[in-house]
Fold:
Amino acid sequence: MDALKKGWFSELCPLWPGMCLSLEVEEIIHSEKSKYQDIMVLKTKSHGRVLTLDGIIQCTEADEFSYQEMISFLPLCSHPCPKKVLIIGGGDGGVAREVAKHPDVETIIQCEIDERVVELSRKYLPFMASGFDNPKLTLHIGDGFEFMGKHQKEFDVIITDSSDPVGPAEALFEESYFRLMKAALRDGGIICSQAENIWAGSGLDIASRVYKFCQTEFSSAAYGYCLVPTYPTGQIGFVLGGLNPKTNFKEPLRILSKEEQSQMDLRYYSPEIHRCAFVLPRFAKKVMDGE
Ligand code: SAM
Structure:
C-alpha cells in the first residue's frame, strides 16, 4: 500500500530504482492478493481504468492499444500466413482481442498463469477482456513455461505478453524458455516477447540479454518498440525471432491497407509504424548490435 498515498498511485519497482510514474486515483475499484501476485484495478483521473500487478502498471484504458496492437501485429504481419497463434500471459485479454482481428488467424491458444487476472479483467476491464469471448480462442490456466515444454512444432506465431521479470514471469525471460518456444514453432514460425525498455534502470540490460537469446536460437532476430506513456519512460520493446532466415522483421510481409486498418479499428499499428519500430537510437543500437 506504499504505492497509494494521498490519492495518488506511484509505480515503485526495483527494475527502475529512483524513479516512478504517479497517477491520481479516483477510486480503488478492486484490490486482492491472488495465489501469484497483488492485483489492483484503479479508476484514475487521467487514464481511465488501470490494472496493476505487484504494484506495476500493466495497462491503462487510455493507452493500452499501443502495446497490444504492436506486440500482436509486428509478428503477425511478418509471417506469410499466421493460422495458429499461442499467447502466453496476456491475462487482461487485450492481445487476444488484437490477434483475433488478423484475417489469417484461425486458432488462438492462450496460457495465463493467474485465473484471477482473467476474472477481474472480465468484470472490470471489458474493453480488453472482450478478447476472451472470441470463438477462435481457447484459454488454459497454467504456467506458460511448463505449457511451452509440452508443445512441439505446433504454432505459427508465439506471443509472450508477460509481466516484468520479477515474480511469476521470471522464467519467461530465460534462454531455456526461448529454446522451448523455438521447438514449439512450426516451420517458418515467429516469436515475439515483451522485452522491457531501453532507458530505465536495468531495462536495456534485460532487453539486450533476451535479444541475444533470440540471436542465438533463431535464424532471424530484431528488437522493436512502441510508445506507451504509462510504461516506465514511455517506451516498451519487443524481441522477435524467426525460424526462416529470410524473415525481415523491418519490412512487413502483410501490408494492411488503410481500409483494413480502419475495419480492424487499429489506432497505433500501420505498415509505416511497423518499419519505424525497429529504428533504434545510436546508444541502444550499440548495445544491441554492437554498432
Ligand atoms: N502489458 C503488460 C506489461 O508488460 O505491463 C503485460 C500484461 S499481462 C496482464 C501479463 C500477464 O502475464 C499477467 O496476467 C500475468 O499473470 C501473466 N504471467 C506472468 N507470469 C506468467 C507465466 N509464467 N505463465 C503465464 N502467464 C504469466
In short: The first strand starts at residue 4 and ends at 5. Residues 27 and 43 are 5 Å apart (CA to CA). Residues 53, 58-59, 67, 88-92, 111-114, 117, 143-145, 161-163, 168-169, 171-172, 194 surround S-adenosylmethionine (CB under 6 Å). Residues 203-217 form the longest helix (15 residues).
